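Project outcomes to date are best conveyed with an example. Our students and postdoctoral researchers have been running inverse folding experiments weekly, and each run begins with a structure described purely in tokens. The record below, which covers 147 residues, was selected by the lab manager from last quarter's runs and is presented without edits.
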């Protein structure tokens, strides 16, 4: 068993599947307030029950702050990243890490039959791997000590 074995669904089960989202009609200011209040780095942008994009701190810094726009009047719809990279719950942690590395992203919405069922961050991946390593070490120590 490698430290990256396990599925995205398993991580969601441990972490909880609740996800903060934002409407495309919300202002960027409302979005960054929510990011700060919840201490998160990204918000899936949802219209009705459909995922239409993702809003990240990077979107704010590059598309609002650097372009001299104002967060109070700019709508999330105007700056969201619409080409969302997503993953399914039955894919592996390794698949997710590969996707995040190749696409240089830190957040992956988890979609099941087109429906968003969670969001996985690079932090979730790191926590999972550390827990898996710790469990493997405990098992080896128990085996070696005859427990």
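After processing, the design step wrote out the following sequence:
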């Amino acid at each position: 068993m490698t430290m990256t074995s396990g599925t995205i669904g398993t991580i969601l089960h441990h972490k909880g599947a609740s996800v903060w989202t934002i409407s495309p009609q919300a202002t960027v200011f409302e979005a960054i307030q929510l990011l700060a209040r919840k201490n998160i780095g990204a918000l899936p942008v949802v219209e009705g029950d459909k995922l239409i994009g993702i809003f990240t701190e990077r979107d704010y810094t590059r598309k609002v702050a650097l372009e001299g726009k104002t967060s109070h009047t700019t709508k999330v719809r105007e700056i969201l990243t619409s080409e969302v990279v997503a993953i399914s719950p039955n894919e592996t942690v390794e698949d997710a890490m590969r996707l995040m590395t190749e696409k240089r992203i830190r957040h992956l919405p988890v979609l099941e039959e087109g429906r968003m069922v969670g969001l996985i961050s690079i932090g979730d991946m790191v926590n999972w791997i550390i827990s898996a390593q710790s469990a493997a070490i405990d098992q080896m120590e128990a085996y070696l000590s005859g427990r």
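Residues 80 and 137 are 42 Å apart (CA to CA). The first strand starts at residue 42 and ends at 47. The training component of this project remains on track.
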